[in-house]
Amino acid sequence: MHAAIVAAVMTVTLAALSAQGRGAAPPPAPAPTPRSGALIDLTGYWVSLVTEDWRYRQFTPPKGDYVSIPLNAAGRKVADAWDPAKDEAAGEQCKAYGAAGVVRIPTRLHVTWQDDTTLKLDTDAGAQTRTLRFGRPQGTADSWQGVSVASWDQPRPIFASPIPNRGGPAIKGGSLKVVTTNMKPGYLRKNGVPYSAGAVMTEYFDRFDVPGGDSFIVVTAELVDPEYLTTPYWTSTHFKRQSDATGWRPTPCTAR
Amino acid sequence: MHRALRENAMRNLRALLCVCLAAAGASLLAQGQAAPPAAGADTPSGPAIDLSGYWTPTMNEDGMERGAGSELADYGGFALNEAGRLWALSYDPSRVTLRNHQCDAYVTPYQMRATGNFRAWEERDPHDQRLVAIHWWAQVTEGHRVIWMDGRPHPPAWAPHTFRGFSTGKFVGNALVVSTTHLKQGWLRRNGTPESDQATVTEFFVRHGDHLTNTTVVTDPVYLTEPQLRSNDYYRTPVDHGTWLYACDDSEQIVGRAPGVVPHYPFGKQPYVREYSQKYKLPLAATLSGAASMYPQFQESLRTTTEAAAAALLQPAPGRPDEVSKAVDPEPRDGEIHVLPIRGNVYMLVGDGGNIVVQTGDQGAFVVDTGQGKLSDKVIAAIDKLSEKPIQFIANTSFHAEHTGGNARLGAAGMDPSLPGSFFVNSAPRGVTGFFSDPLRHATMMAHNNVLIRMQDANAPADAEPADTYLEEHRRKFHNGDTIELFYEPNAITDGDSLVVFRRADVIVAGDIFTTTQYPVIDLKNGGSVEGEIKALNDILNRTNYEHEGEGGTYVVPGHGFLGDEHEVVEYRDMVVIVRDRVKTMIDAGATPAQVKAARVTADYDTRYGSNTGAWTTEMFVEAVYNSLKAAGATPARAGR
Lengths: 256, 641
Description:
The structure holds two protein chains of two kinds. By secondary structure, chain A is of the alpha+beta class. Chain A is built from five helices and twelve strands. The longest helix of chain A is centred in the first third of the chain and has 20 residues, at 2-21. The N and C termini of chain A lie far apart (80 Å). The longest helix of chain B is centred in the N-terminal third of the chain and has 29 residues, at 3-31. The termini of chain B are far apart. In chain B, the strands form four sheets. A nine-stranded mixed β-barrel of chain B has the order 1-2-3-4-5-6-9-10-11. Chain B has a seven-stranded mixed sheet with strand order 12-13-14-15-16-17-18. In chain B, strands 19-20-21-22-23-24 form a six-stranded mixed sheet. Chain B is built from 17 helices and 24 strands. In chain B, a hairpin with a 5-residue loop joins strand 13 (346-350) and strand 14. Chain B is of the alpha+beta class. Mean pLDDT of chain B is 90; it is low at 1-46 and 634-641. The chains are: A alpha+beta, B alpha+beta. At the A-B interface, helix 1, helix 2, strand 10, strand 11 and strand 12 of A face helix 1, strand 9, strand 10 and strand 11 of B.
């Protein structure tokens, strides 16, 4: 009895596999590029919606104000020693505009494809550029924006079913995942709350379209920095889509 | 081949064979069943993401606000319109010491930001395993929300509102997208930043590994100029938090406080309004600027804002026309009568211009109010479907036409079998005591005696007039297994108002003492008064109880609008008291009616209740409050006519 069931199962399985191979094989389609296979469209102009941590983001908070950030003692020591004049004198006005801080600065984003494998994020606040390269890491080590590697992120089952059409419904859409390392030490807030050169930031860019026509990007970011943080620091930052470049006005970094 | 490698390869082969057989077997079993139908038009048959499990909020953003509490007069980053800003400025945190506010729960967008523990689980149909709902439990306020995934529609506009609202979801891309309506009035922020009961919410739940991001987009035509977007982050916790309860019971918080007090600040008199800006060295206008405060270059724009311009934001802008209600009209206006079950054998009938309540049972139907009378035939047909017996009693909450318009038709459709052969009928000359004389062809209609007098004064048809009237504070009947009581509310909307209380069903029919659609129609000419209206609203609140965390429990049927409970009544009572206090302050200072109107004393409520047209405008309401207070100063309100 068991043998008969096994035989039947094997027969069905092999038939299914055989059916897949029947007929002339079509020419292999060219592998999609990250651009042609984009799960979501992030290109265009986007403007910050500063609805959370409002006081810390719209204004430079006083020294030592690092509520909500899981700083360790070393981090607090650096934050308590913040001296914007010193940063200005050192030509480091952009310390709050590094990759781990710049999306928190009220800004407009201009997102474009630099090529088929590289997304470019320009900010008008601080006039910064982040290059998000799919495949190989892109960027300059020890720079404000560090080195980023991008990928499309889509929920998938851990094991794909060996039986066609039995793996659950296909999921459309997904997130842009960006992992950034090798950042020059900078600030999470303009008042000198620090992150270190060893910090690793993982971001997920999600796009949401709401009834009424508005579209939003939510950037969910996890910053892991054992040098200055006791636990991972999570933020989710919002941008609203603009139909054009209205308001786009690049301005230099400021330390205060 | 090396023996170890060979054994390893054989082990892998066996494992692969097992996986293939198991998968193929499962496939055969699945092929033997019908494919499960899609759960909703846009919903795939299975979830794109699984929210099940225990979740802990990260609180790395707005940690102070979400933990210890927000600071007073901090409205930065909110797209508040003038009404929203003024409502927030008027809010005194001491208001939560009032008994009826102590257990207010959080509305969904704020609940999702709360501290505490969260848990999600799926509800699946036991037979076909379709996803029916996703449940989300919040420890703080014991918030249990249900996200329906089975494609069911949202309730009609006249259905009750809850703190969690009514949510439906579908999977779009990698997100669970949730639409929520029917929310109660609540907070966007715990310092009084308001969210109205007209707000709707679109949410996106996205999982990135063990991290969950919930993005809420609140659209509130009453208090916001544009959608308010915020996001909340959680990390998955592998073990049960173990702490899930947050019981609330109300109690006396301030002993000896005069009844009817609603803590609030007069316009321009919020004593702490500069505390936040001074503490953090911000311009006063920074937190008062609404949507502009959300965008880049805001700081620059503040440089041109003068102190005088900032101070002007603390009061209604002078000379601006009154705003009008942005609320959804809950009246269906489709020529049909719609039945909403309330509890047990009590129903609300909507569609004939004023809400009608029907109680059914083994005795005849008991009807409260009869609508405008334009759809009486359909009202009667609807009652016939609910009740095997004809209408036996009709009670009127007032003489106003939207509540007595169908008296004649509904009365004629009913009968009162308790009266034939009784002393009252046999001794009553026809035409003197109304339809007591012909009970088998007419329902018995009851109301306060002033309703009868007002209707007679208005030359209403005799067959529309209530014959069974009461003179003092109370009328009661035991009918269809419930105690039904009529409580007289002298000089509220008119001088003949009654609350009708179904004691066992725990339903109060308020008539126009409480509506969800407009300012109270204080009919001075027919004996109404603002003080009587406030007393009547407080009398309702003295008879209500909530089921859990400030909602449910006693239902209150408004004269117009959606079915409410204690929370809707207390918000309405607060509004009337606050407007009364503002007008009274101006009267005491010698203001004329024109000056009171020009002061826009209802500016924080007009987008919810205001009207510039129709039978009851904002101006008429303010004038009624003014004149009522003036009259009360001259002569005490009468207890009845």
